[in-house]
């Protein structure tokens, strides 16, 4: 079946700061986004990338494609005001029944193993969402303070989140709600159960400056 990877890179990176959004910052002399695109294209030869970018950074994205990739395998579309809207814009370019990976462009340490694991689960059950356990203790905020929670009941969510297009496209017709921080929340609101897959600790989301340091170190060491 046809495979699409919607790589969402339409955000502004406000928590990171800097002169360009974090997806264009350099890690080992290449943009963060380069690594995410490369791993998907290398994992499956029949996969097409849909790259979602802030409209004002379309040219910068095109330069990355021209410099490193086969332009016939990548299409660009404009991001929206929310991650939800950016994914929805990407989905509008999905042309046929397919397996759709949605991946944060800033999770640049994604591995082919994880991509394949998610694909296997999604083709078996219709969905795949990678998660890792919490290394820290957890506390829940309550009306009168806070209380401990059992961390064994909590999992931290990553991307790629993978679904059949027949599920994801209709699910994204729903009206936006603040709780839609990822595809799993949207598909769940659509009434379906989510299948979890073992994620990877190194599949970090570059969010703050410290994450660039960690990613650089992991890339250098190939760890
Ligand atoms: N309107 C948006 C918001 C986010 N994203 C993408 O979703 C991923 C995860 O989002 P996050 O880390 O929150 O990125 P930003 O929104 O850019 O960061 P911040 O919240 O700090 O501004 C990123 O690859 C980001 O580019 C997107 O495509 N469109
Ligand atoms: C989708 C996500 O990566 C799951 O952890 C995450 O929710 C995206 O980041 P945001 O800060 O919620 O936009």
Automatic annotation (TrEMBL):
Q: What does it catalyze?
A: 2-C-methyl-D-erythritol 4-phosphate + CTP + H(+) = 4-CDP-2-C-methyl-D-erythritol + diphosphate
GO terms (molecular function) for this protein are: 2-C-methyl-D-erythritol 4-phosphate cytidylyltransferase activity
Q: Which InterPro entries match?
A: IspD, IspD/TarI, IspD/TarI_cytidylyltransf_bact, Nucleotide-diphossugar_trans
Point out the annotated site residues (description: Positions MEP for the nucleophilic attack).
Answer: 151, 205
* Biological pathway: Isoprenoid biosynthesis; isopentenyl diphosphate biosynthesis via DXP pathway; isopentenyl diphosphate from 1-deoxy-D-xylulose 5-phosphate: step 2/6
Q: What is its EC number?
A: 2.7.7.60
Which sequence ranges are marked TM in the entry? none
**Positions of the record's site feature: Transition state stabilizer:** 15, 22
Keywords for the protein's UniProt record, in alphabetical order? Isoprene biosynthesis, Nucleotidyltransferase, Transferase
Looking up CDD domains in the UniProt record yields: CDP-ME_synthetase
What this chain does, per the entry, is described as: Catalyzes the formation of 4-diphosphocytidyl-2-C-methyl-D-erythritol from CTP and 2-C-methyl-D-erythritol 4-phosphate (MEP).
Would you identify the family this protein belongs to, as annotated? Answer: Belongs to the IspD/TarI cytidylyltransferase family. IspD subfamily.
Protein name stated in the entry: 2-C-methyl-D-erythritol 4-phosphate cytidylyltransferase
Q: What is the lineage of its organism?
A: Bacteria, Pseudomonadati, Bacteroidota, Chitinophagia, Chitinophagales
């Amino acid at each position: 079946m046809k495979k699409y990877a919607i790589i969402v890179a339409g955000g502004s990176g406000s928590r990171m700061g800097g002169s360009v959004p974090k997806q264009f910052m350099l890690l080992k002399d290449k943009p963060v986004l380069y690594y995410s695109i490369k791993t998907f294209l290398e994992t499956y030869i029949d996969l097409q990338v849909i790259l979602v970018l802030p409209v004002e950074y379309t040219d910068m994205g095109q330069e990355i494609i021209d410099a490193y990739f086969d332009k016939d395998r990548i299409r660009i579309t404009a991001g929206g005001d929310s991650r939800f809207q950016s994914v929805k814009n990407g989905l509008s370019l999905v042309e046929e029944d397919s397996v759709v990976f949605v991946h944060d462009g800033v999770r640049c340490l994604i591995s082919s193993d994880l991509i394949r694991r998610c694909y296997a689960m999604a083709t078996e059950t219709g969905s795949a969402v990678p998660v890792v356990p919490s290394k820290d203790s957890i506390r829940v905020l309550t009306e009168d303070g806070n209380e401990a929670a059992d961390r064994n009941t909590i999992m931290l969510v990553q991307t790629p989140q993978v679904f059949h297009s027949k599920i994801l496209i209709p699910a994204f017709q729903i009206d936006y709600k603040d709780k839609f921080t990822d595809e799993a929340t949207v598909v769940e609101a659509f009434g379906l159960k989510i299948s979890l897959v073992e994620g990877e600790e190194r599949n970090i989301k570059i969010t703050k400056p410290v994450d660039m340091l960690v990613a650089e170190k992991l890339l250098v060491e190939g760890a």
